[in-house]
Specification:
- By secondary structure, the protein is an alpha/beta fold.
- The chain folds into two domains: 132 residues, 3-Layer(aba) Sandwich (Rossmann fold); 156 residues, Rossmann fold (3-Layer(aba) Sandwich).
- The chain has ten helices and nine strands.
- Strands 7-6-5-8-9 form a five-stranded parallel sheet. Strands 2-1-3-4 form a four-stranded parallel sheet, sandwiched between helices.
- Helix 2 links the parallel strand 1 and strand 2.
- It binds phosphoric acid mono(formamide)ester.
- Phosphoric acid mono(formamide)ester binds next to helix 2.
- The site of phosphoric acid mono(formamide)ester has 9 residues, from helix 2.
Amino acid sequence: MKNRSLVSITDYSKEEIRHVLKKIEQFEKNPNQRLLEGKVVATLFFEPSTRTRLSFETAVNRLGGRVIGFSDASTSSSVKGETLKDTIIMVSNYADLIVMRHYLDGAARYASEVCSVPIINAGDGSNQHPSQTMLDLYSIFKTQGRINDIEIAMVGDLKYGRTVHSLLMALSHFNPVFHFIAPEELDMPASYKTFCQKSGIRFHEHRDFSEDVINQSDILYMTRVQKERFSDLMDYERVKNVYTLRNKMLENSKPNLRVLHPLPRVTEIAYDVDSNPKAYYFQQAKNGLYTRQAIMCLALGIEN
Ligand code: CP
């Protein structure tokens, strides 16, 4: 895994996913080490972010490295018409590693092909968000004691939600059962369902967000309807409040059920869920720090 970009979660094999999970566990025990001393990491965010950018930057700081970059592309020369290719080539002159979020599907793959240093995809359009997936898998492992044989309900925007696309691909190695809960307009894309069918992965599709499905699940993975991906805001208005998880809906859920959400949330999880011990989304986001420490060190070939 030396000097390797992480563009899609499929860049990791099943064995590598297990290896990364072990590394994350080690970083959680000891997040303050000087492993990135002398290294410069660039964080280029062409789309807004709170958790991903700040956890990557905290991860670098806690490992003794330095951060350059931008959180708002309108302050960069991209507004003058500089291409993504030129931007990436320039930044790779300065940094040892580039973490990039971009609004276009495939932008991270393209960047990795023109770049002389590793690229970590921090989310590209509605395509992939592999570092989120590793923190999701770590959260599943911590709360369930395993990542095999998980029954998981994915709820909300399965069309544009890059986190569910990445998570589906990662869990496909580990004998999952999926419940896809979405309105027709936000269905899981056909390519992912075809992949499941061809791979013998069990999945069920639902329009109703019912307690029956919640009660048989180990993980309830809620997602936000991705307003920024709609070309017609009237379409967004029709589905924006399609499902809301309320505390009373968890009354008969399994003792091991945990509610995950990549965050930010809008209306899909009511605030009364936050105090339920099964709500795990804030701890999940905290796991992002250790996860990103592990991913960056592995990308740079640095052992902890
Ligand atoms: N989960 C996630 O990607 O959050 P941010 O958009 O705040 O980075």
